[in-house]
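#dry-run=false #mode=assembly
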Amino acid sequence: MHIPDHVLSQPVLIASGAIALGGFSLGLKRLERRLRDRTVVLMGIMAAFVFAAQMVNFPLLVLPASGHLIGGVLAAVMLGPWAGAVVMGTVLLVQCLLFADGGILALGANFVNLGLIASVGGYAIYDPIRRGVGGRAGVMLGAMVAAWFSVLLASLAFAIELAGSGWWEQLPEVLGWMALVHAAIGLGEAMITGLVLRSVLAVRPDLIFGVVEQGDAPPRWGRVALAGLGVALAVAAFLAPMASPLDDGLEFVGGRLGFLSGEEPAMISGPMADYSLKGLPDIAPVTAAAGLIGTVTVFAAGWFLGRASTGIASRLERSPEGPRSGGEGPEPHAA
Amino acid sequence: MRLDWLEGPGSAGGPLHRLDARVKLAAVVGFVLAVVLVPMGSWRPLGIAGMVLAGLVGLSGVAPSLLLRRIAALMPVVVVLAAVIAPTHPKASALGAWAVGGTIVAKNALTIGAILLFARVTCFRSVLGALSWFRVPPALVATLHLMYRYLFVLSDQLGRMARARRSRSFRRSRWAEWPLGAGLIAALMLRSFERGERVHAAMLARGWDGTVRSLDGPDRPETLPPT
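#status=ok
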């Protein structure tokens, strides 16, 4: 589900639209320089793939509902950051024009969140981890951590866009709720991304973007700085609800000065008012705990899956037949 | 899952199907803009917009129940967002939170309905023709063209793979769905990659130079025969 029209204010829509347009054309330019006439074919078919992959449902283990892969980080890991962003932009455009999923005017905001931030930002987190850890385990760990943070960063961006539409004083609260919900979604995204990459690494590790050409050279400083910024922002999203005393202080000052007085009756009479006000003190520790648990879980799962896939891959490479992609026949006994 | 929505021109083939795609694209964007610019709590323009949309649906011959079901499927997220926004909206003190929330929901239902109607009465090929007429970069239009072409191929392939997997696994736990589904995605991704390479080689062999050509230009109306 994407941002519909009529939720963000017009200045936010125009600003995000301009950023999206610039980002998309920059991505397309860079791709055409790299891929030349292959661009269109590869982007088209991978966009169709992402669309199809989003149809695979994963049951949530506790709720009678299911979720699906978003695919921004997966596309970036396989194709490179800008290609991932272009693929996601194409998917979003088709979803908007054909299925009315996400508004036409909010297309820019959706592309900023799910294309630029998820793919380009996610790659900036993935790349230093991959090079730092090295090998297949690096790919797995980097991609899973990046998938988890990309979902968080996208939700953070949405919270900021929402707040920019006239709800600045509610930003910490919106951030807290968004971060809490998306911590769970991000865990799922990280697990699916990791499991998909485990299969890819076992069969065609050469297809992963940049692994063959760049190897495990130390990460570039700019990438590390970007990754650090992204992680810091995501952490800030978890810590933001902790800043509730500050928020109350701001409201107190606003009430004293009179510039928030217009909102007061609505806050009390609104149907959601007591919900949002009472929710504030409870959610802060929960959100922070979810952030901590989620980060630790993703790191642990990435490390575990990375180790396991390294083991499988090295066993396969040592076996005389080479890697096996099919499932025909029983497993040969290890010599 | 949702591809059944994309049948191109519907079986009815009403007057809206035959209308130039450029006119329809401009009209739907204009409709969305007009609805966005309606101020909060003014129901009369929204009612007029709703009547216009209802009239167009009636003219098009698209089954209203189909549209309504699809709109209803997209509404929960809108309702949640409206409930978050409405209590503290700047206009909420004057109009009441329910009026603001109701306006947000009504506006979104109108624009979603308009886009769905547009998608239903315009085949995607002519949408792409209209996009390139409106000076959308050719690389993006060509990418969309190929994406649309392979959407059905890949989703059919995914369906076959999922069926094969179901027929091989006797017992499934909810936990097992995750690695199985991820394996499905990985296999589909590798096959898409390889298919992309084959398709590119085949296109080069047929003289591909980076532009998608078709026999009917963007200014021609729908030429697909009604199915």
